[in-house]
Amino acid sequence: MSDFFDVVIVGAGPSGTVAAALLLQQGFSVCIIEKQHFPRFVIGESLLPHCMEFIKEAGFLPAEEAEKRFQFKNGAAFTLGSRYTCFDFTDKFTAGPGTTFQVRREIFDKILIDEAAKQGADVRFGHAVAAFADTDSGARLT
């Protein structure tokens, strides 16, 4: 296990794991530091179709699509008293996905971090950054 990386990402949520995968694709060495242990409880998440493009680019889409507990979603509906409105994600003017998933975040986040680790990210659970120093030889995290 190395202690020297091109990039250290603090936080193993969806943004951190996608960023790690994209950096790994560019040849950077990446460490992800996460203070919690996975799976962890996080409030559920309603993804938007545009998110699917980032998930695909990161190489995570096959693993996400294989998870049968996620609910397929092609729109959203809202009510307030007697008022009702809905959105059809496939009724759009631009290219890109028109569908997505309603995910359980503890499962979704675990899938993403596992996929990032498979791609080569060094993942460290139970770690938090206590200090940062900008040195002549590079950044140093404690």
Explain how this protein is built:
With 142 residues, this protein is an alpha/beta fold. 29% of the residues lie in helices and 30% in strands. The protein has four helices and ten strands. A three-stranded parallel beta sheet has the order 1-2-8, covered by helices on one side. Strands 3-7-4 form a three-stranded antiparallel beta sheet. A hairpin with a 2-residue loop joins strand 5 (75-80) and strand 6 (83-88). The longest helix is centred in the C-terminal third of the chain and has 14 residues, at 105-118. The protein is elongated, with a radius of gyration of 18 Å. The two termini are 16 Å apart. 21% of the residues are buried.
What is shown here, in short?
With about 140 residues, this protein is an alpha/beta fold. It has helices at about 15-25, 50-55, 60-65, 105-120, and strands spanning about 5-10, 30-35, 45, 70-75, 75-80, 85-90, 100-105, 120-125, 130-135, 140. Helices cover about 30% and strands about 30% of the residues.
